[in-house]
Write a structure and sequence with these properties.
By secondary structure, the chain is of the alpha/beta class. The protein has a domain at 1-81. Helix content is 17%, strand content 27%. The chain has three helices and 28 strands. The longest helix is centred in the last third of the chain and has 21 residues, at 216-236. The relative contact order is 0.08.
Length: 244
C-alpha cells in the first residue's frame, strides 16, 4: 500500500502522520507504538493509540487500532481487526475477518478466525478456537480445547471448556432465545419457557423451531446450538475427546 492509498483510506490524516515500519514496511500512525522487533506487513496498518510489541506479527490487510495491545508471539493477519482496549498475546492467532474489541483478551494458544467476534470483557485462552460467525462476549470465558462455532453466542458469565462445565451453566444466546443447562450433569436444557432432557431437544428442535415460526436460518442455528450442548454433555461424561 502506498501513501496515496493510505490517505484515501484515512481521510483527515496527512503523510506527516504516518511512517513505514522498518520490519515489514507496514504503515504506523505516529500516535501508535510499534517496537523494532515486531513485524508489520506492507498492507497492514497500526494506528490510534495502539501498541504492538514483543515478537508479535501484524500482516495481511489487518488493522490494529484504538488502545489495543498486540504482543508476545501473537499474530494478527488476514482482514482481521483488533481494537478498543483489547489484548492479543501469548501465541494467540486472530485471522480471517475476525474482530477482537472492547476489553476482551485473546491469549495463550487460542485461535479466533473466520467472521467471529470477541468483545466485552470476554476471555479466549488455552487451545480453544472461536470461528464461523460466532460471538463470545460479556464476561464469558472460552478455554481449554473447546470450540465455539457456527452462529453460536456465548455471553454473560458462561464458561466453555474442553473438560467440563466449570463455574455455572453454559449459556448460549441465540438470535431469538437463549439456551442453558439447568442440571449440573448437563442433561437438561432450557430455552425460553421450554425445559426438557437433552435427548428431547435432539429429536424435536427443528419441529419446535418450526412451530414458533423460526426461519430456516434460525432453525439451522438452533440445531447447531443443541449439537454444541450434546458435545458438552459427551465431554462431561468422558465419551468423546475435546470439542465443545
Amino acid at each position: 500500500m502506498n501513501i496515496e492509498e493510505l490517505l484515501n483510506r484515512f481521510p483527515g490524516t496527512t503523510k506527516d502522520d504516518w511512517c513505514q515500519h522498518k520490519n515489514g514496511g507496514g504503515w504506523v500512525q505516529n500516535t501508535a507504538t510499534v517496537d523494532a522487533g515486531a513485524f508489520v506487513g506492507c498492507s497492514a496498518v497500526v494506528y490510534g493509540q495502539s501498541h504492538v510489541y514483543g515478537e508479535s506479527r501484524v500482516y495481511g490487510q489487518s488493522r490494529v487500532y484504538g488502545e489495543s495491545h498486540v504482543y508476545g508471539q501473537s499474530h494478527v493477519y488476514g482482514q482481521s481487526h483488533v481494537y478498543g482496549q483489547s489484548r492479543v498475546y501469548g501465541e494467540a492467532r486472530v485471522s480471517g475477518e475476525a474482530r477482537v474489541s472492547g476489553q476482551s483478551h485473546v491469549y495463550e494458544q487460542s485461535r479466533v478466525y473466520e467472521q467471529s467476534r470477541v468483545y466485552g470483557e470476554a476471555r479466549v485462552s488455552g487451545q480453544s478456537h472461536v470461528y464461523g460467525q460466532s460471538h463470545v462476549y460479556g464476561q464469558s470465558h472460552v478455554y481449554g480445547q473447546s470450540r465455539v462455532y457456527g452462529e453460536a453466542r456465548v455471553s454473560g458469565e458462561a464458561r466453555v471448556s474442553g473438560e467440563a462445565w466449570v463455574s455455572g451453566p453454559l449459556y448460549v444466546q441465540g438470535s431469538a432465545y437463549e439456551f442453558y443447562n439447568t442440571k449440573p450433569d448437563c442433561s437438561v436444557l432450557r430455552s425460553g419457557c421450554i425445559e426438557n432432557p437433552l435427548e428431547w431437544w435432539v429429536e424435536n428442535i427443528r419441529r419446535c423451531a418450526d412451530e414458533h415460526r423460526y426461519t430456516t436460518e434460525q432453525q439451522d442455528e438452533y440445531e447447531a446450538i443443541v449439537a454444541m450442548f450434546v458435545a458438552q454433555n459427551a465431554l462431561r461424561t468422558q465419551e468423546v475427546g475435546v470439542t465443545v
